[in-house]
Design brief:
heterodimer, A: 380 residues, alpha+beta, globular, B: 396 residues, Butyryl-CoA Dehydrogenase, subunit A, domain 2, Butyryl-CoA Dehydrogenase, subunit A, domain 3, 3 domains, 12 helices
Chain lengths: 380, 396
């Protein structure tokens, strides 16, 4: 049992923290936000230069063979700096599908372009009524010759506005909520029949609602088994949840730090407001919440390697519950302790709160995952 | 980072578990599961079994009878002990006064007291809190005056746990009234059988008798019973309170209680089916289990940190343990109350001697709920813990 980072992991942490300290303060972030697409291509290429976009890919595929801990380190750092670039959508999720299910030819077509920063991906999964159920898929993929024809609507596709390739879940067999009959398809974003309605999200990212109308793709678009890929989807989404847990820990750390600094310097009644016990206790509770979240983020990172899929997903669900609760508390109290200034767009704390809030509602909220843990018979 | 226990650690867990299976008296275990109080005999019997095995004072240095285990082994031992469940060693002797004596006491004191603590030949109690000195412990007034080769002790202690069984007390006494309040306190040990010591029971809201008031009326104590230096007692008290950082989370206790909740909840019906099938109840239980898992991980982080970097610089996460540990213990007792519903009400006038079999399975659940309100109060209340985090961790 060991919770420390090894030497290589420490270096990785230093390297990404260093990069973001130099190129990602709150003012710089505002500029990136105003760029076309809502994030900075320059920063993205810097991440590529440092090898971070190739982190989880196997060395044979041109990557660095990093594991869960390496992704945790990066996601925490990205959270801390409130990074806008599509690391989750491209490297963690898109990359996850490629790592777990792509053929050599599919890898050759996509992985090098991800690693060098020339290409980003997006995961088109959410449907109008699917909410958080990954198996609730109405979008269809029908066989046509060697290839497939995709029809359906996907919503809130993160990085959907900018992605070059879409990873689309679609039903090849069965009814809307059947657990079997679901496939995963790689669809070029500029394919005929793909239409997008793009918009910024509440937390400053960008997403799109995407309609697929008779979109034809070849046989090489299929990832894994076109008739039975729910386990693959669950596996990759679990990895995304783990990454979000780590990002949230980074966000909470920075929120707490910023808030503590604020109440140490803000004076009322002639003293720093941090000298008041009611505020001290609130800050202590924020610390407790953040530490519990960190513990569960680590647990989720390690659970990701559990061999038993049920045990893995149950542990990650539990982590997402803790992260959701802690994130809500730390986020809300950060605003409260900042007072009026916390309500302004100008102060950075509100932006952390908004990202934390959106994370809770991504890939299953607290109630959703708590129910899953309860239905699985708990953890003990 | 690696969550897995090594093969050796897993084998150690099995060894500990097997020892408990073979050696914990079944009746003792049953009483703990049901939340009953144990008699002095039952506790001492078990502690001597443990001591005979060489595990009575496991975390002491080897030269005083400790095991030389790693932090992880201590963690495993405690978890297995709590979740079996078996009675935990008497903290007042083993975790509190023992380490003070082997760290600050002289050779004579070590020889005299340590083996007797290990074998519970002396039952120790703690003389810290006073009626006017709870969270503000340093304001204590119990006085020790030097007269010839004796200390003359006058004053009153309170919340003295199991003083009714005690042979010895370690006591914070004011020895210099003119010094700043933390500076004039000494750490003195003496016999509870001394002339002038009176123990008066306090009945707590669960109906039990765990705590007492203890009065000192011109109690004469040999001068050599001072531990360490005169007027340095506050330092020793801080050492003592900071010593037991990880056990306080009581993760094993809460795990055991969750197993009991699940067991009862699959038998007790609500709406014509076992209450465990009720979605609202199940989700509440899951929420508690998730909190507990997070706490377990936090504790493991602290344990792993101590193992690697020593106990010198406490991991800031350790201050989470008391707050969350006590909250979760309280939640588990609340959930038990919820499971038994109307059967929480009957008050067993026989107390917890088990003579009323009809009430056996429910009798101690409400008292245990009432009793567990103490866990967020004792050992530095949770509000004091928040003060500590604010000051020591956040720098406020």
């Amino acid at each position: 049992m060991d919770f420390d980072l090894n030497e290589e992991q420490r270096l990785l942490k230093e390297s990404i923290d260093g990069l973001l300290t130099d190129s990602y303060d709150f003012e710089q972030r505002k500029k990136y936000m105003a760029e076309k697409g809502g994030w900075s291509k320059t920063v993205w290429l810097k991440l590529a230069e440092q090898g971070l976009l190739g982190l989880p890919f196997a060395e044979a595929d041109g990557g660095f063979g990093g594991g869960g801990v390496e992704t945790m380190i990066v996601m925490e750092a990205l959270g801390k700096a409130l990074v806008l670039e599509p690391y989750l959508a491209t490297v963690v999720i898109g990359g996850g599908f490629l790592r777990h299910a792509a053929t050599d030819a599919q890898k050759a077509a996509h992985v090098p372009a991800i690693i060098d920063g020339s290409k980003t991906l997006a995961f088109a999964q959410i449907e109008k009524n699917s909410r958080y159920d990954l198996f609730d898929v109405s979008t269809t993929a029908k066989k046509k010759g060697d290839g497939w024809v995709i029809d359906g609507e996907k919503f809130v596709v993160l990085n959907g506005e900018n992605a070059d390739t879409l990873v689309v879940t679609a039903r090849t067999k069965g009814d809307r909520r059947d657990r079997s009959g679901i496939g995963v398809f790689l669809v070029p974003a500029n394919a005929k029949g793909v239409t997008k309605k793009s918009y910024p999200t509440q937390d400053g990212l960008h997403a799109a609602d995407i309609t697929f109308t008779g979109v034809e793709v070849g046989a090489d678009a299929v990832l894994g088994n076109p008739e039975d890929s729910l386990a693959l989807i669950e596996r990759v989404v679990d990895e995304a949840r783990v990454a979000l847990c780590a990002e949230a820990v980074g966000l909470m750390d920075e929120s707490l730090k910023t808030t503590v600094e604020y109440i140490k310097t803000r004076k009322q009644f002639g003293v720093a407001i941090g000298s008041f016990q009611s505020l001290q206790h609130r800050a202590s509770d924020m610390f407790v919440a953040a530490e519990q979240a960190r513990s569960m983020s680590m647990f989720a990172t390690m659970a990701n390697d559990f061999e038993d899929a049920k045990e893995r997903t149950n542990a990650i669900a539990a982590a997402k519950v803790q992260i959701g609760k802690s994130a809500k508390f730390v986020g809300q109290q950060s605003i409260q302790l900042h007072g009026g200034i916390g309500m302004t767009m100008e102060a950075k704390i509100g932006h952390y709160f908004k990202r934390l809030t959106m994370i809770e509602n991504t890939f299953g909220d607290t109630d959703y995952h708590q129910r899953r843990v309860a239905d699985a018979g708990g953890l003990i | 980072m690696d969550l897995a226990f090594t093969k050796e650690e897993q084998a150690f867990r099995e060894e500990v578990r097997q020892f408990f299976r073979d050696n914990v008296p079944p009746d003792t275990r049953r009483k703990l599961v049901e939340g009953r109080h144990l008699t002095k005999d039952e506790m001492v019997t078990w502690w001597r079994i443990l001591n005979k095995k060489g595990w009575g004072v496991s975390h002491w240095p080897k030269e005083y009878g400790g095991t030389g285990w790693t932090s992880v082994q201590h963690y495993i031992f405690n978890e297995e002990l709590q979740s079996y469940p078996a009675p935990q060693p008497l903290a007042f002797g083993v975790s509190m006064v023992g380490p003070v004596i082997y760290t600050f006491g002289n050779e004579k004191q070590k020889k005299k007291y340590l083996p007797r603590i290990a074998n519970v030949d002396d039952w120790w109690c703690q003389g810290f809190s006073e009626p006017g000195s709870g969270s503000d412990l340093a304001s204590l007034k119990t006085k020790a005056e030097r007269r010839g080769d004796k200390w003359i002790i006058n004053g009153q202690k309170t919340w003295t746990t199991l003083a009714q069984h005690a042979d010895m007390i370690f006591c914070l006494c004011r020895t210099d009234a003119s010094a700043k309040k933390q500076m004039g306190i000494s750490f003195i040990v003496f016999s509870m059988k001394s002339k002038g010591v009176t123990v008066r029971p306090i009945q707590t809201i669960d109906g039990g008798h765990e705590v007492n008031e203890v009065f000192f009326d011109d109690v004469e104590v040999p001068i050599e019973n001072l531990i360490g230096e005169e007027n340095k007692g506050w330092d020793y008290a801080k050492f003592l309170l900071g010593n037991e950082r990880t056990g306080i989370a009581r993760v094993g206790v809460s795990k055991e209680r969750i197993r009991r909740i699940k067991d009862l909840a699959s038998k007790v019906e609500s709406g014509g089916r076992p209450i465990i099938q009720d979605a609202a109840f199940r989700e509440k239980l899951a929420a508690c289990e998730i909190e507990l898992k997070a706490l377990e991980l936090t504790q493991l982080r602290v344990v792993a940190d101590e193992g690697k970097h020593g106990k010198g610089k406490p991991n800031p996460a350790s201050s989470v343990l008391k707050i969350k540990g006590s909250e979760i213990q309280q939640t588990t007792t609340e959930l038990l109350m919820e499971v038994i519903g109307p059967f929480a009400a009957p008050y067993d006038v026989h107390g917890d001697d088990g003579s009323n079999e009809a009430m056996d399975w429910t009798a101690q659940i409400a008292p245990s709920y009432f009793n567990n309100r103490k866990v967020s109060i004792y050992g530095g209340s949770n509000e004091i813990q928040r003060n500590i985090i604010a000051k020591a961790v956040l720098g406020l």
